[in-house]
Amino acid sequence: MAEKWQIKELSFDLHESALNDEYKIMTTYEQRWIGEGKTINFVRVTR
User: Fold this and answer.
1) From 44's CA, which of 6, 12, 14, 35 has a CA 20 to 30 Å away?
2) Are 40 and 30 in contact, with CB atoms under 8 Å apart?
């Protein structure tokens, strides 16, 4: 079944990426993790 999915957008550091700003609304958890030096991963897939 994995072959039916297509990756449309992918980032291993969402808030430093060139992706659309609508994806970059920072949650409480993201603020915490970024404060700990972690990055936020993002993937948008379609079938």
Assistant:
1) 35
2) yes
